Amino acid sequence: MAVTPRILAFAGSTRTDSYNKKLLRLAAAAARAAGAEVTILDLRDLPLPLFDQDLEAQGLPPNARKLKDVMLAHQGLLLSCPEYNSSITAVLKNAIDWTSRPVPNEPPLACFTGKVAALLSASPGALGGLRGLVHVRSILGNIGVIVLPEQVAVPKAQEAFTPEGTLKDTATQAKIQKLAGGLAETIAKLRA
Length: 192
Ligand SMILES: Cc1cc2nc3c(=O)[nH]c(=O)nc-3n(C[C@H](O)[C@H](O)[C@H](O)COP(=O)(O)O)c2cc1C
Hints:
The structure is a single chain. By secondary structure, the chain is an alpha/beta fold. It is built from seven helices and five strands. The protein has helices at 19-33, 53-56, 62-72, 90-99, 130-142, 157-160, 170-191, and strands at residues 6-11, 37-41, 76-80, 116-122, 146-154. The protein is globular. The model has no long low-confidence stretch (mean pLDDT 97).
């Protein structure tokens, strides 16, 4: 791989024992194995106020600026997204809303346009968070992200992981490797 793809990975959950954070770690490891440089971010470490345009008028909150900067430094996004009420979680949508806002001397949607994303989800439910991914895919596509058609949803997440954090189902692990490898490869091809 001539170009080393730089991928930012985060989950749409801040929960300490989040299944999506576990899944994300596996996907990040697979992307690294495929030759990418991966930064894992916990949205809990960059708490953001609930988006409010009056607040924005006072200036971008420092953590929103930090999140924008880290996104600008990467070409790809690896996102593991819990499903809340059949949709995207508030914490993920809030992060997208803040980082999608224009600021002087920055092209519109600079954190998103032309970025490549791969999506995963995990849920204790039978669908593995699949319905939430429909909305995440739509939102990202509408702000200029190239979202890979493949995705991985892990159902019955409370039973899916070993105590070491690996997946019990080797077929799902293989799908994660394919997805993460595809993300690294797509970024490298686009940047070649
Ligand atoms: C407000 C709320 C709504 C939820 N709605 C759904 C849902 O629509 N579908 C689903 O599969 N799980 C739903 N769940 C359960 C989550 O999948 C579960 O809490 C999961 O552990 C969240 O992901 P995390 O472990 O990465 O934090 C919901 C949980 C909460 C707190």
